[in-house]
Amino acid sequence: MDGWWDIEKLRSVLPEEWVQKIIGCPTDFGGTMEDCQIWQTTSNGLFSIKSAYNLLFSGMEWLNP
Prior knowledge:
The chain is about 40% helix and about 0% strand. It is an all-alpha fold. The longest helix is centred in the last third of the chain and has 10 residues, at about 50-60. It is flat, with a radius of gyration of 15 Å.
């Protein structure tokens, strides 16, 4: 991992429109954070089936890059 998107790999599996949105997202936060997954709909950042169900049926707008 070098902190950059693998653009060719993205292009091999995704439409160009999606690739452009993805590469517009930052991949590095100045070395201040380790990589981690965060589920934004729970207070602890952890995914659960309950939280996914609640999100799906809440009518909440999905966050898009």
